[in-house]
Predict the 3D structure of the following.
Amino acid sequence: MKYVYLLLLTTLTFSLVQAAPIDEVRAAGKSWMEGISKGDPDYMVSLYDEHAILHGTVSPVVREGHKLIREYFAALTSPPTMNFVEPQHIRIFGDVAVNTGNYETTIGNNPPVKLRYSFVYHKVGGKWLIVDHHSSRMPEPN
């Protein structure tokens, strides 16, 4: 019986240790969602690593580094409202995390648009920073 308790305690401890990074990455995604609706390009850039790459939804230009990423967010004429569509598929690989899935955006009174995304994060100084971000419009069903 002693071994059963030890096994249960070990399993519970491992689950708690694994849950924390997933929650941190989920919070980083939430910060991005809240930030994009603020329309503050400097805030958005603060969520990205200095060498990050952005494949944005509304631009054919691949943006590498803070200067070009800021330019992308500064060009958004009206801040969109965005929400993740669950589930988010978050995977942790040490100090790197990947979050993929879908989100929905609304700009002004226009109908919502469904998008898909991939965020790759790197944990730097205790903060999950985006190092690669791809967003594209969801293809129409056949």
